[in-house]
Design goal:
- With 254 residues, the chain is an alpha+beta fold.
- Helix content is 30%, strand content 23%.
- It has five helices and eight strands, in the order E-E-E-E-E-H-H-H-E-E-E-H-H.
- The strands form two sheets. It has a five-stranded mixed β-barrel. Strands 7-6-8 form a three-stranded antiparallel β-sheet.
- The longest helix is centred in the last third of the chain and has 19 residues.
- The protein starts with a strand and ends in an 18-residue tail after the last helix.
- Bound molecules: zinc ion (ZN).
- The site of zinc ion has 8 residues, from loops.
Length: 254
């Protein structure tokens, strides 16, 4: 049983017994980890108060064999999610980041770049960056890193490049744009404007800060939230819980 050290974001804390909790963590070096934190609910535990939802902590855990929970032996708080603006929508957006990490990743699959992206998104949500912008950037980055990015440059079925003009069919199941030749026969297709596709492309670009300056009007923002929400639902096979609380994003420019 190896003892491992890493940084982790707390995604979920569930009471397990009178004194212990089971925590779901997204770690920088080991991906998602489910671990038992013995004694975490005691007043003077070795975890102090590090195991708060959305907190970033430095942890030590014992990696157990498959099928058993890992054992968390230490957690030191690095940063708590502060929500300094006391804005509920920013808190919900942070919960949504945690929900996507939990739902889209598997245990034992290290995703260090995704960890950095999540850490950055939580920091941005503590600051003043426009909420809809931070959420969209995190979603597109997570989809790209996990290999789920929809086809936005070419046809999802045949790969032909697509020149953007007017409206284009976007297939939820096939995973992106369709060329006119491939359009027939596909179900779950929505129609999206070139402007929406352009914005999605800019937010998906890696190692680029252009997403901070992309200009979008309320209509484009509403349309891209619509298509992306449906796409994420399709991917997860259910509606993320936090979608219900993120209605503001469709009209948001805050
Ligand atoms: Zn095609």
């Amino acid at each position: 049983m190896a003892s491992e050290k890493t940084l982790a974001i707390v995604l979920r804390v569930v009471e397990f017994s009178e004194t212990s909790c089971v925590v779901t963590l997204f770690t920088r070096d080991f991906g998602k980890v489910g671990a038992l934190a013995k004694g975490a609910r005691r007043p003077k535990s070795s975890f102090e108060s590090a195991l708060d939802l959305l907190a970033v902590c430095r942890i030590v855990f014992l990696h157990k064999s498959a099928e058993t929970l890992d054992l968390l032996t230490e957690a030191k708080l690095e940063r708590r999610f502060r929500n300094a603006q006391r804005d509920l929508s920013r808190l919900y957006a942070a919960y949504y980041v945690a929900e996507l990490l939990r739902e889209l990743t598997d245990e034992g699959d290290p995703q260090p770049d995704l960890y950095e992206a999540a850490d950055a998104a939580l920091s941005e949500l503590e600051g003043a960056t426009e909420l809809a912008r931070v959420v969209l950037r995190f979603e597109m980055t997570a989809l790209r890193l996990l290999g789920h990015l929809p086809a936005l440059g070419g046809c999802a079925a045949c790969g032909q490049p697509i020149a953007l003009a007017g409206r284009h069919p976007f297939a939820l199941a096939a995973g992106g744009l369709l060329c006119p030749a491939c359009r027939p026969g596909h179900r779950q297709v929505v129609s999206v404007t070139a402007a929406t596709i352009q914005v999605l492309r800019q937010f998906a670009a890696c190692d680029s800060d252009t997403w901070r300056d992309v200009t979008w009007d309320a209509r484009t923002c509403g349309e891209l939230r619509g298509v992306l929400n449906q796409y994420v639902c399709r991917l997860l096979d259910h509606r993320p819980r936090m979608h219900a609380y993120l209605g503001l994003l469709g009209h948001a420019t805050r």
